[in-house]
Design brief:
about 300 residues, alpha+beta, 2 domains, 6-stranded antiparallel beta sheet, 9 helices, 10 strands
């Protein structure tokens, strides 16, 4: 091993005290009013899991995964906090607590549809289970077939290879359902983003479930993408193996280069690439300072 891969190699884990001391400053800068009391332990748990994962021996991989998750999982929650009374004698009946909105990050979440999210992938589809897989009917009337072996086809009078029609998937946001959709049978399901790094599109869920050895379980039950173990595997394998966009993390982070900005293409084109790159650099600096020496081999 040589070059950058050796510089950033780790297999001894990270100093938890240093992580605890450094994480709040990074996390609080992700959004205004981030609840670091909840988000920091979640980040610590994720770092420790990644630190013990033999598939992720490059500090830069961990840094970039953390930066991505920081943006993908940011979600507003309501919290009750105490009210500091003004100086002097308190007024009878004055409130002693109030509700505030704060961001939480590093918890697998469900994309909040309806606030600026108007992608074609958010429209519902009908999923009919069959003996060999499923028939998917989109609101615009397009129908697709997916097998339990991960083969995808589009129905254009006869079933054709799905890859020829990949850009046809999804209905135009806000369009009215067609007669074909209304007549179709099956469960009405949504495939907006879920997890630590958001899965989207019905074929994305189907493909991830098949690669995880779950068959079409994520197609039939997309909410399972929120389960911590599933969300973790989608993040690690999806980014390393290129499930999500076809781009792999190794293309932009390898023995010769570290390009955190372009690595955004592994998840979502160039969306927020500079902000995520800046976060990744901060996580990298912290992880390198907290990196522990490998444990001596047992005799």
């Amino acid at each position: 091993m040589a070059g950058l891969n050796q510089k950033y190699f780790h297999n001894g884990g990270f100093d938890r005290a240093k992580l605890q001391a450094g994480l709040p400053a990074i996390i609080s800068g992700i959004k205004k009013w981030v609840n670091t009391g909840i988000s920091t332990p979640l980040a610590l748990n994720l770092i420790e899991r990644l630190g013990a994962d033999s598939r992720v021996r490059d500090v830069r991989y961990i840094a970039y995964m953390l930066a991505t998750v920081s943006r993908e999982t940011a979600e507003l929650h309501y919290f009750t906090v105490p009210v500091t009374p003004p100086p002097g004698k308190p007024k009878p009946g004055a409130p002693t607590e109030k509700k505030v909105q704060q961001w939480v990050v590093f918890d697998p979440n469900h994309e909040n549809i309806g606030k600026g999210t108007e992608g074609d992938y958010v429209e519902p589809v009908k999923v009919e289970r069959t003996g060999e897989g499923a028939i998917i009917t989109e609101m615009d009337g397009d129908q697709f077939k997916v097998t339990t072996q991960g083969k995808f086809f589009k129905n254009k009078n006869q079933w054709e290879d799905f890859d020829k029609h990949r850009n046809r998937r999804g209905s135009v946001f806000g369009a009215k359902p067609t007669d074909v959709y209304n007549a179709a049978v099956g469960d009405v399901l949504h495939y907006q983003g879920r997890g630590l790094v958001h899965l989207t599109w019905w074929d994305g869920y189907a493909n991830a479930g098949i690669k995880l050895g779950m068959g079409l379980e994520l197609l039939y039950r997309p909410e399972r993408a929120l389960e911590p173990d599933i969300a973790y595997e989608v993040m690690v394998r999806g980014m390393i193996e290129g499930w999500i966009t076809g781009a792999t993390l190794g293309k932009w982070i390898n023995d010769s280069i570290t390009n955190y900005a372009e690595a955004r293409r592994v998840i979502n084109g160039t969306d927020n690439q500079d902000k995520i790159a800046q976060l990744a650099q901060k996580y990298e600096d912290l992880l390198m300072s907290a990196r522990l020496a490998p444990s001596p081999a047992k005799k």
